[in-house]
Amino acid sequence: MENHVNTLWGQFYGWLPTLLSYAGQLVLAIVVLLVGWSIINMVTRGMGRMMAASNIEPTLRGFLLSVVGLLLKALLLISVASMVGIATTSFVAVLGAAGLAVGMALQGSLANFAGGVLILLFRPFKVGDSITAAGNTGTVVSIEMFRTVLQDSTNDIVYVPNGTLSNNVVINSSQSERLLASVSLLIDYNDDIDKARALLLALFQNDALVLKAPAPSVSFLPKPANIAVTLGFWCAPGNVTPLVAKYSEASIQILKKEGFRLGVTARTAA
């Protein structure tokens, strides 16, 4: 029994230098982990302050800080693991292969994400703007990382992928100080076009929402059975829809009252 105990102690003393060596590596790895973790948090906070000072969108700012923080911490953990003797080459290779597989499976989502980053960086539109893109027209309700939410004229909510928005033409009506709105209708060939012009232009005399320069205009275009009348006027972007509705009704009423023979009417807003 005594010989067995002596043998164990002998083995322990033989392993002691190795244990002390690993203990030193472990302590050093823990110190590096704690210090590195604190430095990464300081770096991400500093980046956050710089991004806020640069007026980068909060959504994009939070996402970028999260990605940078995760990447730096992953590199730190891999470095610490190698310090204590853990082989990290295979681990890194597995992570790379997994990342490639995930990227291939999520090509569409990654394209939408990249589109969201571009939209938030270059700001072709912002929340509250009225835009037309990919066959959809509406007011921007929110800009998310993968999609943009619009509300159209019927209050339907439209979700448009950011990849589509970043790779197609986007018309932002809200970035202009003024827009040209128009109302179209049809009159008979026997009607007096000079009288029609005077009656229609008189509608705008006391409307402060209609710009005086450029002045409203009335144009006539002959059609096979009628004369097309287009009433054009300039106004602020937010006033286009209500003013088009107002003057579509007012123009019909005034011309009917004066005995004009109207055809099928249509109204448009540019």
Automatic annotation (TrEMBL):
Membrane-spanning segments: 20-43, 63-87, 93-122
Membrane topology field: Multi-pass membrane protein
Domain Mechanosensitive ion channel MscS: 109-174
Pfam families in the record: MS_channel_1st_1, MS_channel_2nd
Xref: InterPro entries: LSM_dom_sf, MSC_TM_helix, MscS_archaea/bacteria_type, MscS_beta-dom_sf, MscS_channel_2nd, MscS_channel_C_sf, MscS_channel_CS, MscS_channel_TM-2
Compartment(s) of residence: Cell inner membrane; Cell membrane
UniProt entry keywords in alphabetical sequence: Cell inner membrane, Cell membrane, Ion channel, Ion transport, Membrane, Transmembrane, Transmembrane helix, Transport
Assembly description: Homoheptamer.
Family: Belongs to the MscS (TC 1.A.23) family.
Function as written in the Swiss-Prot or TrEMBL entry: Mechanosensitive channel that participates in the regulation of osmotic pressure changes within the cell, opening in response to stretch forces in the membrane lipid bilayer, without the need for other proteins. Contributes to normal resistance to hypoosmotic shock. Forms an ion channel of 1.0 nanosiemens conductance with a slight preference for anions.
Name used for this protein in its record: Small-conductance mechanosensitive channel
